[in-house]
Amino acid sequence: MRTMRAAFASSFDADNPLSALTVGERPEPTHPEDDWVTVRLRASSLNHHDLWSLRGVGLGADRLPMILGCDAVGTDPDGNEVVVYPLVADPGDPRGMSILSENFQGTLAERVAVPRMNLLPLPGGVSATDAACLPTAWLTAWRMLTTKGRVEDAESVLVQGAGGGVATAAVALAVALGKRVYATSRDPGKRERITELGATALEPGARLPERVDVVVETVGAATFDHSLKSAAPMARIVVSGATAGHEPKVNLRRVFAMQLEILGTSMGTPGELTELLAFCAEHDVRPVVDSVVPFSRVEDAFARLHSGDVFGKIVIDHTA
Ligand SMILES: NC(=O)c1ccc[n+]([C@@H]2O[C@H](COP(=O)([O-])OP(=O)(O)OC[C@H]3O[C@@H](n4cnc5c(N)ncnc54)[C@H](OP(=O)(O)O)[C@@H]3O)[C@@H](O)[C@H]2O)c1
């Protein structure tokens, strides 16, 4: 059997997810349907989703071993440079679809198989490294701000936990969209870097100079009360993650009195990814990259993500 190098979940460990990660040989991709193609990887990026998988959240034991990774930029069989849209139709999943690395093998490998319709052209002027940040974290932030948060009707935006991949994306995009942006982080160094992106940085829980129209919430229990308190009447609090716990106490009196909308969202559509790629190319917006790590050191990249000492996206260079 032909094999390739891959980083995969070989078991689960809720407390020490890094111990469930294996880097080694896995079988070459196979095509479940005729319209699938194999993409040779140039770049991918890590997401908190990969750590959740190693903890056994969202990934069943019957799916192990599972190659991790949702994001991919690479070369299709015709030699075209492509960005891979990471959601695949999946009738067996209650959502009707799954993200690469949940049911179908992920992108942290030499090659990945996906439906041909999931391939988008890599726009000119956008590097493979930058584009590898967009399909999961940046797409999620884009949909949070636009489709869900209706940011075109907003003056101001609050982003919680601004060091993360989704959060730095939301800060950069909201600034590029011309909004007043506030962002919280526990870390003084990250607060300094948020300021460099054009936002006003605050400590978690700090009182804002104004109430905001849109809140981008990926932290969860640790920040949700602050999100509610910082929201203007009729504001949209958009939730796509709960890194610090998914069961916050919610002051419902504030929700109805201020007529707040709490909106859940996941990823985005292929059309939204096309819009995002065009927006980044046209407005010269580039992802916030924490570090670019060669695939040969992918374990170090996971350790860095797990440490929490990250500002922006960790990109994996599959050509190094
Ligand atoms: N639904 C979707 O489609 C989707 C897509 C992508 C991501 N997500 C989810 O969104 C979340 C964010 O993912 P990510 O990969 O962007 O970044 P991440 O690595 O999960 O980091 C998020 C940020 O959370 C903050 N944080 C963590 N623990 C905290 C605590 N106890 N108190 C306060 N802040 C805390 C940190 O901010 P500071 O250090 O700056 O304070 C960190 O930078 C994850 O839960 C992920 O699963 C969902």
Q: In terms of structural class, how would the helical and strand content be classed?
A: alpha/beta
Principal-axis shape: globular
| Number of E-state strands | 18
Fraction of residues in H or I helices: 25-40%
Counting copies of identical and different chains, the oligomeric state is single chain
Ligands in the model, by name, code or SMILES, are: NADP nicotinamide-adenine-dinucleotide phosphate
Order of helices and strands: EEEHEEEEEEEHHEHEHEEHEHEHEHE
Average pLDDT level: 97
Share of β-strand residues: 25-35%
Amino-to-carboxy terminus distance: 25 Å
Spans where pLDDT lies below 50 across 5 or more residues = none
Described by strand count, sense and barrel closure, the largest sheet is: 7 strands, mixed
Q: What would you say this structure looks like, in words?
A:
About 25% of the residues lie in helices and about 30% in strands. It contains nine helices and 18 strands. It has helices at about 50-55, 130, 135-150, 165-175, 190-195, 225-230, 250-255, 270-285, 300-305; strands at about 5-10, 20-25, 35-45, 65, 75, 80-85, 85-90, 95-100, 110-115, 120, 155-160, 180-185, 200, 210-215, 230-240, 260-265, 290-295, 315. The strands form four sheets. Strands 3, 5, 6, 9, 10, 17 and 18 form a seven-stranded mixed β-sheet that branches. Strand 15, helix 7 and strand 16 (about 260-265) form a beta-alpha-beta unit. Helix 3 (about 135-150) packs across helix 4 and helix 3 packs across helix 8 (about 270-285). The protein is globular. The mean pLDDT is about 95. The protein binds NADP nicotinamide-adenine-dinucleotide phosphate. NADP nicotinamide-adenine-dinucleotide phosphate (NAP) binds next to helix 1, helix 3 and helix 4.
